[in-house]
Amino acid sequence: MIELDDLPEMENAVMILAFEGWNDAGEAASGVIEHLADLWDAEPVAALDPEDYYDFQVNRPRVLSEGGRRRISWRTTRILVATDTPIGRDVILVQGVEPSFRWRAFAIELMEVAQAADVTMVITLGALLADVAHTRPIQVTATSDNEDTRHRHDLEASTYEGPTGIVGVIADAAVQVGVGSISVWAAVPHYAHHTPSPKASRAILTRLEDLLDATIGHGSLDDDARAWENGLDALASEDSEVAEYVESLEEAQDTAELPEASGDAIAKEFERYLRKRGTED
After folding, report:
1. CA distances from 231 to 26, 75, 222, 236, 238 (A)
2. May I ask which residue range the UniProt record assigns to the signal sequence (predicted)?
3. Average pLDDT in the 210-232 region?
4. Does domain 14-220 have CATH number 3.40.50.10900?
5. Distance in angstroms (rounded) separating the CA atoms of residues 240 and 225
6. What pLDDT is stored for residue 207 in this prediction?
7. CA nearest 179: which of 117, 251, 120, 96?
8. pLDDT tens readout for residues 87-132
9. pLDDT of 23-39, one tens digit each?
C-alpha cells in the first residue's frame, strides 16, 4: 500500500468498490464511483502499489505533460474518502482497474483498510453484457451471501456458479473478515458495449439509494441517460436489422416480466392442468 494521507476517523462507514475491466460493461460500475467521488468531493488517501498487482503490458502507464514537464502515470487502484456526506454516513470509495495477478493479496489489502475504518458494509458494483433492449429499464440485481444482510435489505442469495471477477473475490473476502457485503450488478445491452452507459450507471445509483436508504444526487446522469438512449434509437432507425433485433429483445423482456411468466404462476397453472386432466380421466 502506498499511503497518501492518514485515514480519518470514520462513522458508520460503508465501502463501495468498482473496477474497470471484466466487471464493468459499458463503464457502468466505474462510472458510479466517479460520479460519487465528484458529488461528495472524495479525497484520495491511499493507492495500491501497481508493481504488485498489474501487468503493465496489459495496463500500460501513460505519459502526461503537466506545466511543461512530462511524467509517467501508473494505473492502479485508489482509495478515496468522503466524510460528512448527505447520506448520513462516511464512505470509502475504491476506484481502479481489475488486477492482473495476486488477487487474494489484493483483496486482503482492501479488507485491512475496511477494518481500519470500522466499515460496516461492503458494496461491490458490477455490470455485465446481456440480451436486453436499451429501450427498457436497466435490470439491476442485488445479492448477498450474508444471512443477516439479506434479511435487513430484503435480498436474495446469489445462485451464480462460474468464473468470477475481482468483485466476487472481494465480496467473499468481506464475508471472511466478518463484514456484511452486497453485490450489485446491472445488465447492459450487449450491442451497446462500445460506449459508456450512463443509463446503467443511473440504475445502479438508484439501487444504491434503496440499499443505503438515502437520496443521492444524480447530477447529469438523467440527461446523459436520455442522450444515450436517443443515440441508440437513432442507430436503430437507420438500420432495419438493428431495429428488428431490438424489437425482438423488447418482446422477450416484456414476456418474461409478465405476471403469468413468473415461477409461482407457472407452477399454479401446471397444478390446474393436472387437476383438469384428473377430472377428465
Report:
1. 15, 31, 14, 9, 11
2. none
3. 95
4. yes
5. 23
6. 97
7. 120
8. 999 999 999 999 999 999 999 999 999 999 999 999 999 999 999 9
9. 999 999 999 999 999 99
